């Protein structure tokens, strides 16, 4: 009997529902610098195409159409933006204590400039910029919010460097 070794799966993409697809594409491409892979387009509920049937499988029957756009980060992670005409147009109350997706994180060594740009596009800085290991490592972080109320985090360094012992320590 052979043993199958487990291995780390790679992250492919994240889907984000936004109130206005065009505004979201503008924000994420201009502020975050993400590449636009597919401009906003409409998807209609129908069973004649693979995408139509797949969306019925995912969303059920209680919809008629929505808009979708595809973007990508510099390291190839996909970002699917969805906009549904009948959905609630505001983000749910921020509550990290409940089960569910809490946030995503982006990395930018110039955290101050990115936060300024987020604010200039209608987003918010949710906390002061903090140093993880101020005596040992030059790593900073901050939680922010996009103009649509979606909370995310910014790191100045990679996840692995931030949490690995000995990285940049004295």
From TrEMBL:
The keyword Cell cycle does not apply. SUPFAM superfamilies: Glyoxalase/Bleomycin resistance protein/Dihydroxybiphenyl dioxygenase. InterPro entries: Glyas_Bleomycin-R_OHBP_Dase, Glyas_Fos-R_dOase_dom, MMCE/EMCE_epimerase, VOC_core. Keywords: Lyase, Metal-binding. Residues 10-157 form the VOC domain. GO terms for biological process: L-methylmalonyl-CoA metabolic process. It holds the Pfam family Glyoxalase. Transmembrane segments: none annotated. Signal peptide: none annotated. One of its GO terms (molecular function) is methylmalonyl-CoA epimerase activity. This is Lactoylglutathione lyase family protein. It comes from Cellulophaga tyrosinoxydans.
């Amino acid at each position: 009997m052979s043993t199958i070794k487990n291995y780390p799966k790679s992250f492919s993409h994240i889907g984000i529902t936004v109130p206005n697809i065009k505004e979201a594409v503008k924000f994420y491409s201009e502020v975050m610098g993400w590449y636009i892979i597919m401009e906003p387009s409409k998807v209609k509920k129908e069973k004649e195409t693979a995408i139509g049937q797949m969306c019925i499988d995912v969303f059920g029957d209680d919809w008629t159409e929505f808009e979708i756009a595809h973007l990508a980060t510099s390291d190839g992670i996909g970002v699917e933006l969805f906009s549904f005409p009948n959905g609630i147009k505001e983000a749910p109350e921020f509550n990290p204590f409940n089960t569910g997706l809490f946030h995503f994180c982006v990395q930018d060594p110039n955290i101050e400039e990115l936060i300024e740009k987020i604010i200039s596009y209608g987003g918010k800085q949710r906390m002061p910029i903090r140093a993880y290991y101020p005596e040992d490592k030059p790593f900073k972080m901050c939680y922010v919010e996009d103009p649509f109320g979606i909370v995310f985090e910014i790191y100045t360094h990679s996840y692995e460097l931030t949490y690995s012992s000995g990285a940049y320590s004295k």
